[in-house]
Amino acid sequence: MTTASVQASDTDSNLDTALATVASEISRTDGKASLLLAFNGAVLAGLASVADHQLPTTAKVFGAAAVLALATAAVLLLLVVRPRLHGRDRASFPYWARLDEDEIRACMNGDTRAARLRVLSVIATGKFRQLRHAVDLSLAALALLLAAAVGLV
């Protein structure tokens, strides 16, 4: 086996592994976002149950800020799980969905793994960034709720 064919084999294997890894990371972000959405929804439901109670002004202010943080986190989490269907990249199923069979075959003549890896990596990075911000907002909301609870004492 020549050095060039060994390098090509390594590249093929690395591309396949990288594609599987990035696809797995995207699935992980969707799962985490779903769990956090359920958590934030439960906290918001709990806050709604005390909304009609007479509370000190401090508790109301911190509680309102917590609701705002949780709502913003929920929006970010919904954006994490929102499908990306623009398909302008020529290496994903939304793009291929607009093609006829002959155009799809023409797209498959070359190795598209590197392009798909780039597209999936951009998607994964965006999802993780939004997930991180949502977690930060959820933690801030919990701190605000703690401050509101201290204001009740």
UniProtKB/TrEMBL annotation:
Keyword Plastid: no
Domain Pycsar effector protein: 15-150
GO biological process, one term: defense response to virus
Compartment annotation: Cell membrane
Main location: membrane
Keyword Cell membrane: yes
Cellular-component GO terms for this entry: plasma membrane
InterPro entries: PycTM_dom
Keywords carried by this UniProt record: Antiviral defense, Cell membrane, Membrane, Nucleotide-binding, Transmembrane, Transmembrane helix
Transmembrane stretches, start-end: 35-55, 61-81, 134-152
GO molecular function, one term: nucleotide binding
One Pfam family in the UniProt entry: PycTM
Protein name per Swiss-Prot or TrEMBL: Integral membrane plasmid transfer protein
Originating species: Streptomyces chartreusis
